[in-house]
User: Fold this.
Amino acid sequence: MQYDVAAAPGRLIEARRRPEFTSWADRVAPAAFIMPAVLTILALSIFPLIVSVYLSLARIKFEKGGVTVTFIGLLNYKKLLFGSQQFHLIGTLMPITPLGWVFQAIVAGLLILWLVTAVRRGAGVLGLVGRLLVAVAAIALALLFTSAGAEGGQLGTIGVTLTYVVIGVCVQYGLGLALAMLCVQNLRGRGFFRVVFFLPMMITPVGVAYTFRMLTDTTKGPFSPIWQGLGLSDFAWAATAWGARVAVMIGDAWQWTPFMFIVLLAAIEGQPREQVEAAHVDGANHWQIFRFITWPAIMPVTITLILIRVIEAFKIVDLPNVLTNGGPGIASESMTLHAYSTWRALDIGGSAAIAYMLLFIVTFFCTAFVNLVRTRPPARAAGAQR
Amino acid sequence: MRARRSQMRGINDPGPAWAALSYAVLGFWAFVVLFPLYWLAITSVKLPIQVNDGPDYLPFVDFDPSLHAWRYIFVDLFVDTARPYLNTVVVALCSSVVALIFGSMAAYGLSRLSYRPRLSTIASFIAGVAVAIVGVVRLGVPWQVGLAIGLAVSVLLALALRRRFTRALKNQDIAFWLISQRMLPPVAVVLPIYVLFQQVGLLDTRFALAVTYIAANIPIVVWLMRDFFDSIPLELEEAAVVDGCSRYRIFWSIVLPLSKPGLASTFILVLIMAWNEYLFALFLSSANAQTLPLTVAAQNATRGPQWWYMSVLIIIMILPVSALALLLARYITRGLLIGAVKG
Assistant:
């Protein structure tokens, strides 16, 4: 209900008769509201954006007394996708095992089912094309993971980054929502929890990375007795691919769950109380209240929150850099770290090309996410049905 | 009977069993959150040899705390700590306040008014920028002249195309364009931004960092505040329009006070982003405008990470932000909205 009111906000006010003294100031109000933000961003984004596109299509050489920039077309991209850097970005790909093919078939089947459902519900042409693209991307992704997961294969930075983003954001959202739901209750000392849960975000990511390097040290860290007790004293997180990735994801979840927590807490507390109280008097249980009132009410914030967090998570760099140094090998290296290390090797064109590849993936991911979530009709609040 | 009891208890009062479970979960997470901070705190009072010799947990029991790291950071390195500290405070506060003002204005516009920027206008603007860049980079025109030419080209093109192409974008597209500004990793745009500030002679100033952070944080403010504005009932504003309030007045006296919880949490979020930003600061500042994250990272010296100094710096970095969060915590409370609608 909340959502529906907000969906067509402009007209409701506009429809009323304007008072007589509508002045010039009021006529330019729309522009006055949006222009400061748009101009600031334009001033600082258009030029860097265009220049970095150009850099990604060029080779930059540092020589004595200057820099030479040569235009080389798509060579940087070609090197990353098909050439000598393919193993780094995409991964070392191996033939897919029969079990892998079974998995592929299941994924493809589910996607076809999903498309058929969309057709039945009467999705438009544009919606279908979009869904088809998402399905193709999903199949390509499944192929990438099964092929890189086969014997002798290795996941490249694209796969690793996607792992961080999808698993990380899901875990962080789940934890944040659960903690926020617990914290809106009338518990003694909840003020304490609210403040405490917020703390990890305040540490600079570099600091978090170093802190976790201390904590995950299996010989001198605080948990070393546990490791020794398990007979893993010479185990290093950074020695196995998934160990390193999990260590990075734990650090990321520790730092960013508070972000989900605080925004969701504000959203849950901002929801209209009448509906909740009315439903409660009518005998709805906690789950029903959550499902039919709270969830629809926090849906817009949820979409925004996940979108913002996904965009930030794609840019993860400090944790893998400091905690595992991207290792073992390239197993925990994210795309931004890949771009960063390519930059440090003074291959600025290659670095920009990786960044644009990342931009392409993020844009696709976010566009798909926003459109798929938005087309779903918002669930009606229980109060509105009566 | 049961219904009446639960009615008396209120929706947010948990039963005893549920309360116990809640406490267990919350307590566990509090431990997860606090333990690394505790470890930082005790590391800051350890001697290097105590850190390197393996885990010691309790000060005074397992080891004798020493203030050597605190003394080093505050006394020996006083200037090198104080200056980045001041820079961080100034840059983060200024940039977050401005980003919050600009961002929430834009968010209000996107939430309540309808915008239809024409594609032709956007295209001519991009053409103007391209002309300016080609002029400056390829033909060696001074950047001031290039800017003027680019501006002229955009305006002329926009006027010429105005009547012919009328396709326009919507609010949703503008919002998505804003958030897309955050999608490119900083490492890709940091070199052009460096050159930009170098050309206007603002490299290594607080101003350059603040402007960069404002531009980086506005999209987040817009997206978060738009949702909060969307959830404010329209009746209040309609009443104000009938009473003859201007749009600015409505925004300033009705909408903003009602969205205090959203403003408080958004402000804290962008403040933290600016407070902790590392990569832009690394490139855009050297001696004068250096911020604290750089100081923290600098403790990873050639002799290996100096954990004790690092811990001190991280702790003194958290303190002011936590204090501010505590101050603002009371705004993030419920009831503001219902009070307004009922009353």
In short: Chain A touches chain B through 125 residues (CB under 8 Å). Strands of chain A lie at 58-63, 66-71, 91-92, 154-155. The first strand of chain A starts at residue 58 and ends at 63.
